[in-house]
């Protein structure tokens, strides 16, 4: 499988992601510069974490107007697989490839820690290796992870199985106590209607080797391999 990793000025999880795809999953992977537009040979585009364009004007806002992101929009419309991790999730909402928005964390602080998330829908290209209800331990590291979406859209997303993962505690309980950033309904990751575009705040690429304390990110990354 051929993965392409989007690189904007300020991306900083691009190399971690590259390492995991190449050295752990042993799949083909290359970086794609934000000025590039030819991405037709990839099977999956990964928009990695970081601070694209310094998070001005809002995280992901400037990256959403680059030649590469415009090409990703076409790629996604044709059914190509796209996963946005953390800043990548922000790029996808700013690009309107995913509904909703990521606002500053409710407590105003950058949050960096291991977090439990619960798989709500395992019938997607990104979660098919997970059990429904499975609890994954995956790190988060963000300032703007407070997911918001209007009530009407939220209802449609819930009915259509687009809420993919929610923040929870280690036993899978979803409550305000297990919500690290104020996200509506503890939402940690969502898909588009067609399920080929996925955005999530936690970092699966930082949870792919036992030396890092958890390999649970592999459930997500291996699901992608399983879907093509
Ligand atoms: N780790 C990241 O991708 C950080 C995302 C973004 N810059 C934020 O702080 O919200």
From TrEMBL:
InterPro entries named in the record: Class_I_gatase-like, PRibForGlyAmidine_synth_PurQ
Stored SUPFAM superfamilies: Class I glutamine amidotransferase-like
UniProt EC number: 6.3.5.3, 3.5.1.2
Subcellular location: Cytoplasm
Gene3D superfamilies referenced in this protein's UniProt entry, alphabetically: 3.40.50.880
GO molecular-function terms, A-Z: ATP binding; glutaminase activity; phosphoribosylformylglycinamidine synthase activity
GO cellular component: cytoplasm
Reaction(s) this enzyme catalyzes, per UniProt: L-glutamine + H2O = L-glutamate + NH4(+); N(2)-formyl-N(1)-(5-phospho-beta-D-ribosyl)glycinamide + L-glutamine + ATP + H2O = 2-formamido-N(1)-(5-O-phospho-beta-D-ribosyl)acetamidine + L-glutamate + ADP + phosphate + H(+)
A GO biological process held by the record: 'de novo' IMP biosynthetic process
Pathway(s) annotated for this protein in UniProt: Purine metabolism; IMP biosynthesis via de novo pathway; 5-amino-1-(5-phospho-D-ribosyl)imidazole from N(2)-formyl-N(1)-(5-phospho-D-ribosyl)glycinamide: step 1/2
Major localization listed first in the record, in broad terms: cytoplasm
Record bears the keyword Nucleotide-binding: yes
Catalytic residue list: 86, 203, 205
Highest taxon above the source species: Bacteria
Pfam family, one: GATase_5
Keywords tagged on the record: ATP-binding, Cytoplasm, Glutamine amidotransferase, Hydrolase, Ligase, Nucleotide-binding, Purine biosynthesis
Function: Part of the phosphoribosylformylglycinamidine synthase complex involved in the purines biosynthetic pathway. Catalyzes the ATP-dependent conversion of formylglycinamide ribonucleotide (FGAR) and glutamine to yield formylglycinamidine ribonucleotide (FGAM) and glutamate. The FGAM synthase complex is composed of three subunits. PurQ produces an ammonia molecule by converting glutamine to glutamate. PurL transfers the ammonia molecule to FGAR to form FGAM in an ATP-dependent manner.
HAMAP family, per the entry: PurQ
Quaternary data: Part of the FGAM synthase complex composed of 1 PurL, 1 PurQ and 2 PurS subunits.
NCBIfam families found in the cross-reference section: FGAM_synth_I, PRK03619.1
Record-given protein name: Phosphoribosylformylglycinamidine synthase subunit PurQ
UniProt source species: Hydrogenothermus marinus
């Amino acid at each position: 499988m051929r993965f392409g990793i989007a690189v904007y000025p300020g991306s900083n999880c691009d190399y971690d992601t590259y390492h995991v795809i190449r050295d752990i999953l042993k799949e083909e992977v290359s970086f794609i510069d934000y000025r590039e537009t030819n991405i037709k040979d990839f099977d999956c585009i990964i928009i990695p974490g970081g601070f694209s364009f310094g998070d001005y004007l809002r995280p992901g806002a400037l990256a959403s107007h680059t030649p590469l992101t415009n090409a990703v929009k076409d790629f996604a419309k044709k059914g190509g697989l796209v996963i946005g991790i953390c800043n990548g999730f922000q790029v996808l909402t700013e690009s309107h490839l995913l509904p909703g928005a990521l606002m500053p964390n409710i407590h105003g602080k950058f949050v960096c820690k291991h977090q439990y998330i619960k798989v709500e829908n395992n019938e997607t290209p990104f979660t098919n290796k997970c059990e429904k209800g499975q609890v994954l331990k995956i790190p988060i590291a963000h300032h703007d992870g407070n997911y918001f979406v209007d009530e009407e859209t939220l209802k449609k997303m819930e009915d259509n199985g687009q809420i993919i993962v929610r923040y929870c505690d280690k036993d899978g309980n979803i409550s305000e106590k297990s919500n690290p950033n104020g996200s509506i309904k503890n939402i940690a990751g969502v898909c588009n209607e067609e399920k080929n575009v996925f955005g999530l705040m936690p970092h699966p690429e930082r949870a792919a080797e036992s030396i890092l304390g958890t390999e649970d990110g592999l459930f997500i990354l291996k699901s992608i391999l399983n879907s093509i």
